[in-house]
Amino acid sequence: MKNSARFEPVKNIVAAMPLGRLDGVLIYTFLYLPMAVLILESFNASKYGIGWQGFTLDWYESLAADAEILAAARNSLTVAALSATLATIIGSLGAVGLQRYRFRGRKFLMGLLFVTLMSPDIVMAVSLLVLFIGLRLELGLFTLWLAHTSFCLPFVTLTVHARLQGFDNALVEAARDLGAGEWTAIRRIVLPLALPAIAAGWLMSFTLSLDDAVVSFFVTCPDFEVLPLRIYSMVRLGVKPEVNSLASLLFAVSLSFVLLAQWLLRKNRE
Amino acid sequence: MTARPAVPECSGKSDNSAMPTPPPIASFRAVTKRYGAQTVLPEFGLDLREGELLTLLGPSGCGKTTVLRLLAGFEIPDSGEILLDGRALAGVPPEARNVNTVFQSYALFPHLSVFENVAFGLKMRKLGGAEIRDRTESALRMVRLEGLGGRRPLQLSGGQQQRVALARALVNRPRLLLLDECLSALDYQLRREMQLELKSLQRQTGITFLFVTHDREEALSISDRIAVMRAGRIEQLGPPRDIYERPANLFVAQFAGESNVLTATVTAITGPGTLAVDLAGKPLAVQSGRHFGIGAKLALVLRPEDLRVHDDAAVENGLAGRVLERTYRGVTLDTLIALDAGPRIKACEFFREDAPALDHPPGQRVRVNWAPGWEIVLPHDA
């Protein structure tokens, strides 16, 4: 109630400026037009995407019949679930540690998180590959899991850490005052209060892992293919309409996860 | 008007050297606490008596909250010893101390119901379900919140949240309850009510309360004893009346209540406990139990409510001056007077139906006097 009242004047200004609305239209056209075309094409009966030749679900059906794609989808979901879970566990504990304790190098560690967040995928991919070869790890599910966990980790840590920033430290002191040990206080008070941020971190990690092609390309073997790589090899032999439907599905999953994560974070703030 | 009676011993809890003192429930012995280069508490010493309500009163930053946090176990002393029931607390974590805290922010767990909040401590002690329920319900009854156990803390008013915080601490039957400025977030009216409630809860439970505040009225009205603190040291420790009427120094006098401070010089010692002083050229007789040499500078502290304002011609004695300002406050009429001797002083008079001469308009010449002996005479050091 209070919020909407505060933003009312801003809304009025925007409404009074046609240019402002035009800007918005341009931005979102630029961002979402390719997606819209992709989704539209996935329902287009034309095999080569030249003109609209009627609505069809054929491409989705042939997708469902493709054993290789189904295997890749299963692999992708497995890796995404495993990586998101491991990243969420480590990242949440890391965030609690960074927030609760004051120690030497704390700021430095925070900085390192941003570095991994911003570092190019290709750098991460090559360095992970070098590491795995050095450790003589067999490329496949396990290496994918480790690699995806490592690039999801900063997202979870920073999301949960941001949530904990507004946290009243007296809550933990109160819990300890009432007889809870340090770990019990974290488990019963800190983690439940950070739960929406933790869930949001998991969902974001899941989408990041699902969408990743570059890192996966380097750290898996041909026997263990994930969806983005499958799409890549399909496209190499010319764009098949099934690719459109597969990409549309991936987009839908990512979008819904991101929306869910945003909703959780907003609910958390209230 | 009769002279103010000597401070009586209000209860057995007051200072009385004739009575054998039981061992303190908690003691600080030469406790030093530093934050970085800053020493917050230098060799702090304090004994708490069983069943008393002791208030640490002082300006912000004087170390009073640190005393509480050291006792709760949230801070570790750099040196010295803290004892609870004669046992040293060094190395004992907060969860193992038989002490509970009511936090300034209340620190209620927002994701738990009121009932779960209050039951938290009992659950941590792994008591049985029936006992937890009974004790939690009776604690909620004690703070008059029965029936609200199912609510979330944020659905309650400030005063109700305050009571939940109290119930959550008291339900554990601690040896010692620590209260950290816990009434400061409430509005004036509610704060007054909660002060009374705190006092009655303390009497009802018999638990020793250590209360921290910077509000002198609060301290004076609820405490058995008050420790006035400044810069990590106790300036004076005693019952409220001692603090207010017999302050140990100028700092305590000014912190404990509104004060007019006048500077005077001793001209003669006229008898046991009586002095002749010079107040900016005007001779004055004052009473003091302290020893002052001739020529010593002293501070004359006059409480506004002890002063009487008279028409210039009506009285012989008193300090002459001119009315600057009058403030009508309902119960009292406050008058600001510029003394001929220089300083301004404030008088605060109650309305009485038999005193028609209370009306002194600004600009009028008046005389201010007070009952002999009601002045507080202190060394002029602070």
Summarize the helices and strands and which ones pair or pack.
The complex is a heterodimer of chains A (270) and B (382).
Chain A: H1 2-16, H2 18-42, H3 58-65, H4 67-100, H5 106-118, H6 121-134, H7 141-165, H8 170-177, H9 182-211, H10 214-219, H11 227-236, H12 241-269
Helix pairs in contact in A: 2-12, 3-12, 4-7, 4-9, 5-7, 7-9, 8-9, 9-12
Chain B: E1 26-35, E2 38-48, E3 53-57, H1 64-72, E4 79-84, E5 87-88, E6 99-102, H2 114-124, H3 129-142, H4 158-170, E7 176-180, H5 188-205, E8 208-213, H6 216-222, E9 225-230, E10 233-238, H7 240-245, H8 250-256, E11 260-271, E12 274-279, E13 282-287, E14 297-302, E15 308-311, E16 319-328, E17 332-339, E18 344-350, E19 365-369, E20 376-379
Parallel strand pairs in B: 3-8, 3-9, 6-7, 7-8
Antiparallel strand pairs in B: 1-2, 1-4, 4-5, 9-10, 11-12, 11-14, 12-13, 14-20, 15-19, 16-17, 16-19, 17-18
Helix pairs in contact in B: 2-3, 2-4, 3-4
Structural summary, described in words:
- The complex is a heterodimer of chains A (270) and B (382).
- Chain A is mostly helical and 270 residues long.
- Chain A has 2 domains: 2-42, no CATH class; 59-269, MetI-like fold.
- Helices cover 80% and strands 0% of the residues of chain A.
- Chain A contains 12 helices and no strands.
- Chain B is α+β, with helices and mostly antiparallel strands and 382 residues long.
- Chain B folds into 2 domains: 26-254, P-loop containing nucleotide triphosphate hydrolases (Rossmann fold, 3-Layer(aba) Sandwich); 258-379, Beta Barrel (OB fold (Dihydrolipoamide Acetyltransferase, E2P)), CATH 2.40.50.
- Helix content of chain B is 22%, strand content 34%.
- A 6-stranded mixed beta sheet of chain B has the order 6-7-8-3-9-10, sandwiched between helices.
- In chain B, strand 12 and strand 13 (282-287) form a beta hairpin.
- In chain B, helix 2 crosses helix 3, helix 2 (114-124) runs parallel beside helix 4 (158-170) and helix 3 packs across helix 4 (158-170).
- Mean pLDDT of chain B is 88; it is low at 5-16.
- Classes of the chains: A mainly alpha (270), B alpha+beta (382).
- The interface between A and B is medium-sized, with 17 and 25 residues.
